[in-house]
Amino acid sequence: MKVVTGVVGNDIHVVANRLIDISLEERGFEVFNLGVNTYLEEFMDAVIETDADVLLISSLNGEAEGWCRDLKILKSQYDFRDVTFMIGGNLGVGEMDPEALVPKFQGYGFDLVFHQIDLNEGLDQLEAYLEARK
Amino acid sequence: MSQVFIDIGSTYFKVAQEGRIVQHFRDFNKNIYDDLNSKCADTVSRYAKEDIYICSSANGGLSTLIIGLTNSFSLKYAINIAFNSGINIIDTVLYSKIENEIAPREIVDVVIIVGGIDGTSGIFDERLLRYLDGVHYQNIVYVGSSGEHAFFKKHIDNIVILENIISGKLKIEEEELKQYLTDLYQADIMGKEDIKQLYAITANQIYSTPYIVNRSLPQITQRLDVADPFIVIDIGGATTDIHYSRDLVNDNIVSESGYDRLVFKKLGVYKSRESLVHTAKNNEFVFELLEHLNVTENILEEHSETATRILMQLSIFLVLYKVSKHHAAYIELKLENLNSIVLTGGITKMLSQEEAEEIILFFYKKILRFHHTPTIVLDSNYEIWTYGIKE
Questions:
Q1: Is residue B171 domain-shared with residue B247, that is, in the same domain?
Q2: Any domain includes B212
Q3: Does the interface predicted TM-score (ipTM) exceed 0.85?
Q4: Is residue B275 part of a domain?
Q5: Of A34, A49, A83, which to mutate for an interface test with B (greatest number of B Cβ within 10 Å)?
């Protein structure tokens, strides 16, 4: 399965990005890593060019809320029905209520949302989700 | 025996020999060969055909229409390669919106189609064929996923299929398409009757001038008082080119060539004067700029030496503006990082160092909010192109 991944927005957490890349490859995914500082449009375009099954966005500095709110609009411009949209990392800024984060990002159009969840646990859940979608 | 270099421009001939460069204004009532002979027959006759090197920008270049799957990869990479091959892009089409696009009315020299990494398929369908039915093109090339080769071979006669310009890791693979476009451009130059005649005086291949200038760039820091990073702005009669180091661009393109170029086809001061004036009038800062230069907008309608000098200053301003962060164009250059700006082309014969500095300082203060400018180097002998004409 093909996964497009990278860090969204003005976020240069390259170590986390590399760890995600390695972990995905170890689990047998074909990884297209766009690296840090990536715009949402670039993620979507990479999914189209590679015909990817999963888009896995990471965000460590909490900027994802601002950068990902147009996801629904972009999803409406192409047929992404077979693509799983996942986001994980540190998704909140300041005093934000962690309980409100998951539904907020689901409302943006993500199928899987992981706020401050261990990477391997998140990837286990991704694999389970993909298995259930078959 | 030394050599002579000749640049056939849209407005001037430039002839360089033994370190001296002479310019001759073109006589448009004569063809290039006769005009060159009438002005430089003595010079040319002193050299063997093997020692005469010619480049030309007088043919206007090739035009292309690019159809791509996404903006961030297909179109971006193809646009980059086309620019660097000296091709003028007349339109780009995002494939998902192709049904709403109107085909260009003019004849397109080459259509480029791209989309998907190798292994992907089912990308293109009858929507593409319907659109292409309305396009008048002379050449068509496909540089996308290998999974679509059968579709293109089956449905489009005479299509050239080359290596995918998008690698398996979504990086740019430019060599094959660049070579194809450069060869096409070269064939176009050689096919022009005016240029064909020039082979009577040279035994060497005639190249396009933008290609030659780009080839000169690695030598500039050794020959002129220029520090990296720098840009070269070549303002001629018909077009304005910017040649720049790839270090000045923030994007996801990692290519092997160190320098790229952008062509502004309609920002010349003679042949495309009207479109330059039109662009100037539509720029929000131009009236302030004209006031700064102590002239009114009436100057744009005049045909005097002063008016031409003002237009040259405007073209410097406009071209910098178009690659600055204030203009959402194809390329944004990190102009604040520049150490040198080199000005070349016909402009160097008319503008003084002070006039060039004045306009660039205005740009840096007004647009970038900087109070110092890079070093301005005027290629007054118009010699940069001679560095690249013979390796």
A1: no
A2: no
A3: yes
A4: yes
A5: A49
